Amino acid sequence: MELMFICPVENRDFLTSRWDIAGSLSVISDHQGKKKLGGRMEVFCPYCRETHFFKPEEIPCPLELFK
Ligand SMILES: [Zn+2]
After folding, report:
1. What is the pLDDT of residues 6-59, one digit of tens each?
2. Most exposed of 10, 15, 22, 65 (fewest Cβ within 10 Å)?
3. 48 C-alpha to ligand 1 centroid (Å)
4. How far apart are CA 33 and CA 29, in angstroms?
5. CB 57 within 8 A of CB 41
6. How far, in Å, from the CA of 6 to the mean position of ligand 1?
7. Cβ proximity of 45 and 52 under 8 Å
8. Interval between CA 40 and ligand 1 midpoint (Å)
9. What whole-number distance in Å separates Cα of residue 29 and Cα of residue 37?
10. Model-level pTM?
């Protein structure tokens, strides 16, 4: 599945299917009862040609991960 990420070095977005979950993802609720994802993703960046790490909440549609 392709997801969009933003390279923190170049500040440009890219679509890639070369991502993986580093460890495990979990759904956590904050103190207002809003659900969000906890965990970390590793993504191969086509601009830097290296791996960046993202929090699921930093990508546009993190709940897509559960579809
Ligand atoms: Zn990059």
Report:
1. 999 999 999 999 999 888 878 888 888 988 878 899 999 999 999 999 988 777
2. 15
3. 4
4. 5
5. no
6. 8
7. yes
8. 16
9. 8
10. 0.72
